[in-house]
Design brief:
Elements (H helix, E strand, L loop, with lengths): L4 E4 L9 H16 L3 E6 L9 H14 L8 E2 L4 H13 L3 E4 L3 H13 L25 E4 L6 E6 L3 E6 L7 E3 L7 H11 L4 E5 L3 H13 L6 E5 L2 E2 L15 H6 L4 H10 L12 H7 L10 E2 L2 H14 L2 H15 L5 H14 L6 H7 L1 H4 L7 H4 L4 H14 L7 H14 L4 H13 L7 H8 L1 H9 L3
Parallel strand pairs: 1-2, 2-3, 9-10, 11-12
Antiparallel strand pairs: 4-5, 5-8, 6-7
Helix pairs in contact: 1-9, 3-5, 5-6, 8-10, 11-12, 11-13, 16-17, 16-18, 16-20, 17-18
């Protein structure tokens, strides 16, 4: 039995789209589940739009989310000569032909189709014409001779049986006038050269699949199995594009969504296994199958991604959480000083409370990162005479403490509340502002114990 082989084939013309990540994930999981191999192919034949930075972003994005591929990347542009050879072979077999229609003729055909409100299909003018009638000094395109009669049937592993009338598939271009191969030719040749057994991709490729199967059959190659997964839509039901907010992996890593959480969310976006919601990596591989993929588009729900991330923040090992926080801060915020690392590690149990992202944890821990507290202008106005008096009383009381714990601090704060006819907010808010620079943040006892007596005294004593 042939080893299962799948691939992910993005074009490096922009950052990796979230829909592309899910496609890569489904291919990778299917191969892993079957004990097969998964490859990355960079389709870089669009030289004007392809950029090295996007290629690197694609590679780094897959690595970030935990998708590993075999060997090194397969670069499509390295194989152009082989694509052209196949086009010429089809030409020799009489299964392709040179088309000498000018751009003006093609545009006229498209215009007429639009006027008649019918889909444009090339009229096959040069399909059976002799090259003796060809215009001189004119570089033709090469078109594939598509089937004209009957139907083609695709046994799709997700969509089921899909039929199409052959006369609706035009004689598509396989070599442009400049001699460069088109997508359908290059993809077919590459999938054959890479010995792909399964092509799993978005259902917007269905018409391409029918074209590519014809190339396979014309070359007497073994046709792979195809699975077309529904596209991802926005919450409003529109097709998700690269122009949408939160459409690329970078959009999520920047706000502190963790790779395991996003991978779990994407796995469940259009796929299900019983009523299970949370999958670790081993479970994802063990349970994944094509039968669990739905036939309808899925809606990208950012609030659900936050919820999934919050679940992971609450439930993963705190050492792992700290390492991810450390990497996130170094990449997007600021490096955590050595002296602050132990404090933050010891404080993660409360810093992660109500945090939906690593960015939330970073914001909650800023008071531990820097000794220099900068109080926001609007919060400084809250430090009136009464607040200053309470801070001074608090300093006096904690200076008498030998043991600085929640148990010893609670009576002090309760006494200040009683003696000054105030409430918990009246004491906690000015203390939090002075210690962290903001009236928002973790609980006051957590802040006090995380900083320690000496640092608390130092910060409070600077308030005048």
């Amino acid at each position: 039995m042939k080893i299962v082989a799948t691939r992910f084939a993005p074009s490096p013309t922009g950052p990796l789209h979230i829909g592309g990540v899910r496609t890569a994930l489904f291919n990778w999981l299917y191969s892993k589940n079957k004990g097969g191999k998964f490859y990355l192919r960079i389709e870089d034949t669009d030289k004007e739009r392809s950029k090295e930075e996007f290629k690197n972003q694609i590679i780094n994005s897959l690595k970030w989310i935990g998708i590993n591929y075999e060997d090194i990347e397969y670069i499509q542009s390295d194989k152009i000569d082989e694509h052209i050879n196949v086009a010429n072979e089809l030409l020799k077999k009489g299964l392709a032909y040179k088309c000498y229609c000018s751009n003006a003729e093609i545009e006229e055909q498209k215009k007429r189709a639009k006027q008649k409100k019918i889909p444009y299909i090339y009229n096959r003018k040069w399909r059976d014409m002799s090259e003796n009638d060809a215009p001189k000094e004119f570089n033709p395109v090469i078109r594939f001779k598509s089937k004209i009669d009957g139907k083609s049937i695709l046994n799709d592993l997700v969509q089921g049986t899909v039929e199409i009338e052959n006369n609706t598939i035009e004689d598509f271009v396989i070599l442009r006038a400049d001699g460069s191969p088109t997508y359908n030719l290059s993809a077919s040749v590459d999938d054959h050269l890479m010995s792909m057994t399964h092509i799993i991709r978005g259902d917007d490729h269905k018409i391409n699949t029918f074209k590519q199967i014809q190339i396979y059959e014309a070359m007497n190659w073994k046709v792979p199995s195809f699975a077309h997964i529904p596209l991802i839509h926005t919450i409003e039901g529109k097709k998700l594009s690269k122009r949408d907010n939160a459409s690329t992996l970078d959009d999520y890593s920047k706000i502190g969504i963790m790779p395991d959480a996003l991978r779990n969310y994407l796995l469940r976006l259009g796929w299900s296994f019983k009523d299970k919601e949370i999958f670790d990596l081993d479970e994802s591989i063990r349970y994944f199958n094509l039968e669990g993929i739905g036939k309808s588009p899925s809606k990208l729900d950012v609030s659900r991604i936050y919820s999934m991330n919050e679940y992971y923040i609450k439930n993963i090992d705190e050492n792992d959480l700290f390492n991810q926080l450390k990497t996130y801060c170094e990449t997007f915020k600021e490096a955590i000083p050595d002296l602050a690392q132990i404090k933050i590690k010891n404080s993660l149990h409360f810093l992660k409370n109500k945090a939906k992202t690593l960015e939330d944890i970073y914001k909650n821990s800023k008071f531990l990162l820097n000794d220099d507290v900068k109080i926001k202008k609007e919060d400084k106005k809250l430090l009136d005479e009464t607040a200053i008096k309470i801070i001074k009383l608090f300093i006096d009381d904690i200076n008498k403490l030998s043991d600085f714990t929640r148990e010893t601090l609670e009576p002090i704060i309760n006494n200040i509340i009683t003696n000054n006819k105030t409430n918990f907010k009246g004491v906690g808010q000015p203390l939090r502002i002075c210690l962290t620079g903001s009236k928002f943040g973790p609980g006051i006892y957590d802040i006090l114990c995380a900083l320690g007596k000496d640092e608390v005294t130092k910060r409070l004593s600077q308030i005048r």
